[in-house]
């Protein structure tokens, strides 16, 4: 029988040997990620219990598995609340991974898809489908992905300088392109009929209401397909943070790696936007919060995904238990909380650390 042995390794890591396979593990990373996953599951279970039809927490597992004695609980959980929770988990994880990729490539905490305009461009693609064509949800989702990719192409084309892609240039160009896309979105709302504009405006608020399996499954599948690619490229991405010239000397194909990572990040951000609408600041905050918990040099991919899911689920629970008589879109809630985080991030005392690299 093959045993498992553990040995100390450089960089506060442990080397787990299973047969001929050696896996390097950072204990702090494993523990923090496990805690975040448990927090996401707890927040998801809590989200299932709240609503106009309260569900006891003890009935949640039976309701999910469809073996509860109360058929109403099964219908409510499987038909309404479980798709909502899974949409939040998938969208939060997708935004967390996307933010970690862009922040790692830009070497800047502001390098997230919502700040540099990719999410706004994805929304433009969706609004064109909603306002001009009255398209069904599947066509809206396709328009979202196409809008995100077109916006990313424009930003990358304009931000390139001397064959490289400076992080500050990427952010500044992205903010400019995002402002233009936001103006186009406003024009589309004016151009449409009252019904179409109302539907589009509601979509722009970012909401988990009325999420169905058709919203949850695509974003979950996207995370499942893209995450392994990002993990395979994570070592190369880490070397690229040393600079393009250094990375190339170490054997990294910088341009190809950067292009694949950007496509992965844009697709994830677009899938999340298609699932729940534009959600602000999750992609900005999740990677940095995870990085600080792990005390790592760069945003960790898996932990950022778990943190994104936790933040979005927590915001969903808060919006549902607020003592108000109207529904608060989750996108507005994350915008309010994220605005405070952005102000803290931009405080002058924190800006002084930029020259030292990550902050």
Give an overview of the whole structure.
By secondary structure, the chain is mostly helical. The protein is 70% helix and 5% strand. It has helices at residues 27-49, 60-65, 71-106, 118-133, 137-159, 167-191, 194-204, 213-240, 244-249, 254-276, 282-294, 301-321, 330-345, 348-351, and strands at 4-9, 13-18, 21-25. The chain has a three-stranded antiparallel β-sheet. The longest helix has 36 residues, at 71-106. The chain is globular. 44% of the residues are buried. Residues 352-356 have low confidence and may be disordered.
Question: What is shown here, in short?
Answer:
It is built from 14 helices and three strands.
Write the layout of secondary structure elements.
Blueprint: E1 4-9, E2 13-18, E3 21-25, H1 27-49, H2 60-65, H3 71-106, H4 118-133, H5 137-159, H6 167-191, H7 194-204, H8 213-240, H9 244-249, H10 254-276, H11 282-294, H12 301-321, H13 330-345, H14 348-351
Antiparallel strand pairs: 1-2, 2-3
Helix pairs in contact: 1-3, 1-12, 3-8, 3-10, 3-11, 3-12, 4-5, 4-6, 4-7, 4-10, 5-6, 5-10, 6-7, 8-10, 11-12
SS-based structural class?
mainly alpha
What value does the Rg take, in angstroms?
Answer: 21 Å
Subunit arrangement of the protein: single chain
The total beta strand count reads 3
Largest sheet geometry: 3 strands, antiparallel
Give the strand order, joined by hyphens, for the main sheet. Answer: 1-2-3
Question: What is the helix content?
Answer: 55-70%
* Topology order in helix (H) and strand (E) letters: EEEHHHHHHHHHHHHHH
Beta-strand proportion: under 5%
Shape: globular
Indicate the low-confidence ranges by residue numbers. 352-356
Mean pLDDT: 84
Count of helical segments? 14
Distance between the termini: 47 Å
